[in-house]
Amino acid sequence: MNYVFDIDGTLTPARLPIEQEFKKFFLKWIKGKNVYLITGSDYAKSVEQVGKDVLEAVTACFNTAGNICHKNGKVIYKNDWNAPSELVAMLEVFLKTSKYPIRAGRHLEHRIGMLNFSIIGRNCTREQRKDYNIFDANVHEREKFCKIIMETFPDIEATVGGQISIDIYALGMNKAQIIKHIDGPIYFYGDKTKKGENDYAIASKLTSPPNKVFTVKNWQETQNILKKFD
After folding, report:
1. pLDDT given for residue 100 in this prediction
2. What is the pTM (predicted TM-score) of this model?
3. Is 25 strand, coil or helix?
4. Residue 100 sits in which domain range?
5. Does residue 191 carry a catalytic annotation?
6. Exposed, middle or buried by CB within 10 Å (0-12, 13-18, 19+), for 172?
7. Mind listing the pLDDT tens digit for each residue in 133-153?
8. Do the beta carbons of residue 217 and residue 192 sit within 8 Å?
9. 184 and 158 in a common domain
10. Any idea what the CATH number is for the domain that residue 101 is in?
11. Closest CA to 202 of 2, 18, 38, 9
12. How many CB atoms lie within 10 A of CB 32?
């Protein structure tokens, strides 16, 4: 069996480091198992969130929606993709016309194989992050932006990621791409498995037994599930 975990919101609080007691439990739990991590963030952010000890203990870590893979800290492969200038121009329009009032900075983040976009910006505080997430839950701004992007650019995918952002990549270069790099059945754990969210692509391909998808609300729920497989 292979175990695949999203990081943000599944193993850690949103954008924050893993809780130390859970980290101790997780490091012990993964021993002797095939465990993979998959996240939209880059490797540096994964180090910040779960630590090098976890990243080197797992079988491999797939970053930026699976567009780069690290094993024991070394790059195994990476997919290059540059967002077209027309897409960037569209995102700039979104940034100017959104009714959400705060702009904290770092709204566009170019990552390996993908582009991350946020109206409030990645420089926002935790409270601002929560506030935007509440705003978006009411008006579904990110869902609307994703729909516009994909209708305008048929060869591009856009999904809701985390609390404040949109993940954008070439069609098919989403988290589901890692399945071809894993031999055997998969148990997947993620917090964004609904259609339009950034775990949906991989979760939707793992619905047939012996594969299984666990949709969690937070790391505590992940831990409770893992205790059953200890």
Report:
1. 98
2. 0.88
3. helix
4. 85-170
5. no
6. exposed
7. 999 999 999 999 999 999 999
8. no
9. no
10. 3.30.1240.20
11. 38
12. 6
